[in-house]
Amino acid sequence: MDPLLSEWLNLIVRWFHVIAGIMWIGSSLFFIWLENHLVKGPDAKPGEEGEVMMVHGGGYWHVVKRKLQPGALPEPLHWFMWEAYATWLSGFSLLMVVYYLGGKAFLVDPAIADISGAVAIAIGIGSLVVSWLFYDTLWASPLGEKTKLSASLTALYLLGITYVLTHVFTGRAAYIHVGAIIGTMMVGNVWARIIPGQRKIVAAVKAGLAYDPAPGLKARMRSRHNNYFTYPVVFIMISNHFPSTYGNEWNWVILGVLMVAAALVKHFMNISETFKAWLPASLATGAAAVLAMYIITAPRPPAAGAATANIAAGSHGAMVSHATVTPVHFAEAQAIIKQRCTTCHAAKPTDDTFTVAPAGMRLDTPELIQANAGRIKMQAVDTKTMPFANKTGITEAERQTLGRWIDSGAKLD
Ligand code: HEC
Question: CA–CA separation, 82 vs 36, rounded Å?
Answer without folding.
Answer: 24
